[in-house]
Amino acid sequence: MSAKTKIALSLFTVLMCSVWAIAQEERPPKPPGVPAGPLGEPRPYHQRSGRPIVLAWADYRNTGPGGLQHDSVSHAMAVIERLGYESGAYDTYIRTDSNVISKHPVDTKGKPITASSLNLDQVDAIFFIGLREIELTDSQKKDLMSFIKDDGKGIVAAHAADTAFIDGQGASDYKGWPEWGKMMGGWFVQHPWYIVEAPVIVENPNFPGVKHLPAVFPLEEEYYETKDFSRDESDVILRLDTSKLSKTSIYDGKPLRQTDGDFPLAWAKNYGKGRVFYCALGHNTEEWDNPQVYRIYYEALRWALRQTNYEVKPHPLPAAAKPAAPAR
Questions:
Q1: Which of 214, 239, 221, 191 is nearest to 281 (CA)?
Q2: 240, 186, 195: which is closest to 217 by C-alpha?
Q3: Across the strands, what pairs with 154?
Q4: CB-CB contact of 304 with 154 (8 Å)
């Protein structure tokens, strides 16, 4: 290598180092929304951006005697995280255990977690997609309900969430949690047709999560039948059109429990000071790549976080949806 080449390489190296140093000086020391502190000062991980925090929670460790597992859960949580990250609307923390469901969390050995720990006091809303037998202590249950009805936080629940905390089935001796069903607005009964394509009706187009949808759209889904649901307490957003579906269950041939044609699929409600949204859609993994579906949950989370305004208004089943009276 000639002397001129060596000199040229040396000058280029100095130039690149200078550019890098200037870039480091101009780079902000902390993410937006987080106060700068002394160099090396530890910062709790739940304060990484100053944006609202969504806890994506799906505890599938105890799923009843059938060993149920929905394949879509992992992808659903990843999509919820991506939507918040790309939009800047919120940060998501994904948990598949239930230790975090507490204002005073403990580790798996029962020891208190205090340093830089995420707990319900730092969370602004929950996205829940767990199911069946979830073990929470009485203290955790109290904290979770307080998070919603006393602190005024929000919860957005997807698909099998209305099977969570339900009394054990079959050989299970699991005891349910009645207040969960009261907060949610209803309980799962069955999916009488398993997976079928049927029309979904947008009953209330004013809710932020459905403004992108047509009045009626077809969707292949594992549609649920719900019990203990009250239109006096919940504002129905989506409803299933069952006019072309069987009136009996494919499993036992028995008639459906709901005979009035009222099959709510999504609803919003208030619970104390908090905001609650449930939607039955999301059984199939590919649904979470469908903007018709994932935008429902994204906008519902923004509503739960109070980034958008919508007043819950329970209403009766529209007269046009009621089955015609039998001819006399």
A1: 221
A2: 240
A3: 125, 275
A4: yes
- Whole-number Cα distances in Å, 57 to 40, 51, 146: 31, 18, 17
Q: Which residue would you say has higher pLDDT here, 115 or 255?
A: 255
Is 1.10.287 the CATH number for 45-186+231-237+262-321?
A: no
Confidence of residue 219 (pLDDT cuts 50, 70, 90): confident
Q: Which residues contact 34 (CB under 8 A, 6 or more apart)?
A: 43, 47, 48, 49, 50
Cα separation, 42 vs 33, in Å, equals 16
Measuring CA to CA, which residue among 115, 175, 184 is closest to residue 148? 184
For residues 49 and 30, the answer to whether their CB atoms sit within 8 Å is: no
Integer Cα distance of 157 and 79 in angstroms: 14
Give the Cα separation of 150 and 144 in Å (integer): 10
Q: Report the pLDDT value the prediction gives residue 19, as an integer from 0 to 100.
A: 42
Pick from 102, 160, 166, 194: nearest CA to 278? 160
Going from N- to C-terminal start, the domains of the chain cover 45-186+231-237+262-321
Tokens encoding 219: 């969707």
Query: What is the per-residue DSSP string for 148-190?
Result: HHTT--EEEEEGGGGGTTPPP-TT------HHHHHHHT-EEEE
Q: Among all chains, which residue has been given the structure tokens 């079959």? A: 170
In this prediction, residue 316 carries a pLDDT of 92
Segment 51-59 shows an average pLDDT of 90
Which candidate, 151, 282, 299, places its Cα nearest to that of 220?
282
Phi, psi values for residue 224, rounded to 5°: -100, 150
Instruction: Identify any residues that bridge with 240 across adjacent strands, giving them in sequence order.
Output: 200
- What are the tens digits of pLDDT across the range 111-158? 777 656 788 898 999 999 877 677 888 999 999 999 999 999 999 999
The Cα 279–Cα 298 span in angstroms is: 12
Q: Which tens digits make up the pLDDT trace of 295-327?
A: 999 999 999 999 999 999 999 988 766 654 444
